[in-house]
């Protein structure tokens, strides 16, 4: 029975970890803490050699050979994880200066022209606004009246009184207009006035004066082809986008989107102007306003490198009239004239009068309209060849001369009537809807 008990005790002891080889854990810890001795080659941590073992039995080659299968696998895995953690900590904490080099970045160095561009954008962005055009629509099913976004564009702060300048086509047909400032504050806007012929409109918002930063106004009379320009706007709803380019051409001519009347002396630029840029400012390298972005030449509707801006010298006079009177008083002759191509096909040069209503300035002065006789044959009306001694070859020439006149001025109109010329004095009057 004693033998049985001894045998049972032996079986129990054999399944328990022997206490003798525990010193290997201290060896691992010391090896992890101690740096390699000078001149010695670095090598991975290792257990003592079996030949150095003080024990009478052979040293086990693996840690888990000392323990039962399950316990050995667990302890071996834990020990391996401990070694990896210690090594990782040594790499991370061993050289703090080296780790910091990856965190602290060297300050970015910008070129002088880049710094100037960044400064220009930062100084002028608060002056640029985002304009949303809302129109009233009735739901076809519920018959509810809804405000639907009809379009969007750009504009800029003109003065501390809250006047905002933009294009007329940006707000055309709007029942409600909202202006978003650079700090994302939104204000309802009222229309002060607009000039359809030049595609200019003035709005007004009731915002705090400290939030209203008027844009610096420059001049456009001395611009040169090749000088740098900058456009800030909200293309495709992307607020406060900066594009750069140069002046590609001067004294271009485009037609008003609303009336078809030509706009003269327009600035051409290759700065990217896309839908949503309309009404935004075109700036020179000093950050001064030189034009209002209004149109692009593109078959696809996106930027093609040919954009147009109304010169600030033209815009300034219009804005002043709109703020003061709510309208622009522009003189007219009171005629309808044939397209330039039709006159060219007739082999003539000048402006062919199609209609001169008796109640208009030209009709009162005696200019004759185009008509048909009793047999249906076309009888050409007067052909205007000059005004105040300035030659007129097409409609653009006539508009350019009238833009330099005032309501109430008397101009001398030279016409070709049949085979002879006549000079007729005409007193200019305002457009009926602007009187």
Task: Provide tags for this entry.
six-stranded antiparallel β-barrel; Thrombin, subunit H; Pdz3 Domain; 22 strands; disordered N terminus; transit peptide; DEGP1/8_PDZ_dom; hydrolase; 24% helix; serine protease; 30% strand; six-stranded antiparallel beta barrel; alpha+beta; serine-type peptidase activity; single chain; 435 residues
Question: Briefly, what is this?
Answer:
With 435 residues, the chain is α+β, with helices and mostly antiparallel strands. Among the domains are: 85 residues, Beta Barrel (Thrombin, subunit H), CATH 2.40.10; 98 residues, Trypsin-like serine proteases (Thrombin, subunit H); 104 residues, Pdz3 Domain (Roll), CATH 2.30.42.10. It is built from ten helices and 22 strands.
Model description:
The structure is a single chain. Among the domains are: 127-211, Trypsin-like serine proteases (Thrombin, subunit H); 228-325, Trypsin-like serine proteases (Thrombin, subunit H); 331-434, PDZ domain (Pdz3 Domain), CATH 2.30.42.10. 24% of the residues lie in helices and 30% in strands. Strands 1-2-3-6-5-4 form a six-stranded antiparallel beta barrel. It has helices at 2-14, 23-33, 69-93, 96-100, 112-124, 168-171, 312-325, 340-345, 361-365, 395-402, and strands at 128-138, 145-157, 163-166, 176-180, 186-195, 200-205, 228-233, 241-255, 262-269, 281-283, 289-296, 307-311, 331-332, 336-337, 351-355, 371-372, 378-379, 383-387, 390-391, 410-417, 420-427, 429-430. A hairpin with a 5-residue loop joins strand 4 and strand 5. With 435 residues, it is α+β, with helices and mostly antiparallel strands.
